[in-house]
Amino acid sequence: MENILVTGGCGFIGTNFIYYILSNADFNGRIINVDKLTYAGNPDNLVAAEKKYAKRYIFQKADICDARAMAAILDRYAVDAICNFAAESHVDRSIVEPDAFIKTNIVGTFRLLELARQYKHQLKLFHHVSTDEVFGSLGTNGRFTEQTPYRPNSPYSASKASSDHLVRAYFKTYGL
Question: For the chain, which end, N or C, has fewer CB atoms within 10 Å of the first or last residue's CB respectively?
Fold first, then answer.
């Protein structure tokens, strides 16, 4: 992979992923970081990446729900992999404002999947990042596995479970 699109790269996990990939000696390509810069995105997290990897790190402020903007980015940078970290998160916020979670986590993932389907000829990988919240509450003991049934308990976890199911459906239906 030469041009990896990372969505939500200014969040905590996305930022660490970007630094990890850029510092990996086996990766000589570019990271194109797309972030809407909501409450969870902080571009200051990647100032050092902009300096140290100036030719290999690109930031684009965009919303994953904007199919035209995302298609332009895929074209402009010849993206061959998508790593989707973009998400509205935090259970309490989802209870107060569930519509933002539906838009970003479900519609945004759908838009990315449709673009991946359209750009299937140039994409080698679509990687979707989820949350353990899709499995429900664990309590003080136990653990989740890949076989644990989905039991989302909030608009946040339900929106992430929905996006997981869309990703699986696109794999099964379209071979993505």
Answer: N
The Cα–Cα gap between 103 and 125 comes to: 23
- The structure tokens listed for 165 are 């199911």
Q: Are the C-beta atoms of residues 109 and 37 closer than 8 Å to each other? A: no
Q: What is the pLDDT of residue 76?
A: 98
Determine how many CB atoms are found less than 10 A away from the CB of residue 37: 14
Q: List residues with catalytic annotation.
A: 132-133, 156
> 56-93, pLDDT tens digit by residue?
999 999 999 999 999 999 999 999 999 999 999 888 88
* Residues 80, 140 contacting (CB under 8 angstroms): no
CA distance 65 to 107: 6
Residue ranges for the chain with pLDDT beneath 50: none
Strands (E), the chain: 3-7, 30-35, 57-61, 81-84, 125-128
The model's pTM is: 0.94
CB 6 within 8 A of CB 33: yes
Pairing of strands 30-35, 3-7: parallel
Q: What is the Cα–Cα distance from 35 to 14, expressed in whole angstroms?
A: 10
Phi, psi of 103 (to 5 degrees): -60, -55
Q: Are 78 and 132 in contact (CB under 8 A)?
A: no
